[in-house]
Design a protein that fits this description.
Length: about 375
Amino acid sequence: MRILHVEGGRHLYGGSYQVLHLLRGLAARGHENLLACPAGCALAEAAAPVARVYGLRMRGDLDLPMVTRLRRLIRASRPDLVHLHSRIGADVMGGIAARLSGVPVIHTRRVDNPEPRWLVALKYRLFDRVVAISEGIRDVLLAEGLPAEKLRVVRSAVDYATYARPCARASIAARLGVPEDALLIGVVAQLIQRKGHADLIEALPPLMDRYPGLQVLFFGKGPIADALDAQIDRKGLTARVRLLGFRDDLAEIMPCLDLLVHPARMEGLGVSLLQAASAGVPIVASRVGGIPEAVRDGENGLLVPPGDIAALRAALEALLSDPERRRRLGAGGQALMAREFSIDAMVNGNLAVYRELSREAARRSGPG
């Protein structure tokens, strides 16, 4: 089967990593991958061994000429189907291009933020199938009127073995500029409002007083970086709370965290949660969106109401004060990831949707 994948993200994290896992899995099963993505993006280089890569101009939701560029590519490459992996204009423009070309089209929905029912009715008419990466996203789409027969759930996956490694404590502490015996909280998320970084900063001061070795590290980039720096400074936390930007060594850093915190106000699933659980790191996260599928309360972490500073602080205190409980939750996370979030399951789930659409296309074309 020849699949044209369209991904508009420029950085290799979150959804783009899921696309890379899928490309590798499909190539290993003998399928032919074509990838349209922004020219020069990190995914283009990483995917080159397993896909024929087409670097395109992708300028966002209002990039109407993207329809022409994608339609031209579809006509030249003749894929069996088109799989749209992101928004940023790739969903609508890609859906229009595939429809005009008469090629079956799938859209993967990775976020749980609500859309107006009129927009859902209009936009999702473009797609033959919509794949939600969590039950939480499925529920949002159903509530907004998406027909159930068009919707499938294929959970995001994690490369478990990449993160399930020992912690090289001395070298990682030196790399991060923290004491070797520091108690480390990590937050791995884009620096955008809905990820809840500001809620964690509000919760921290009493904990900093109680745990002198506590260090909090934010990994990621985004538009609210300056606002977070200012908030950290106002709270007097600059020596122990730092923004470290995007890192390509998270697989080495994760096993050395004592706790991963994800206080998101909205979240489709949360790839960093899967990574942390694979590394044996206990998690404190919000009970919102698809997060409860990745973080089972009492099994691999603790869940709190989104935006509840007092509950967030109490959950952090409960785990910071109890190393044995952290160890048990970390082991529970590794077992959960190995059991339910494998790359094979994600690849096979998407393949099942592809085959379903191929059978439908064959029936429509009929004999002869």
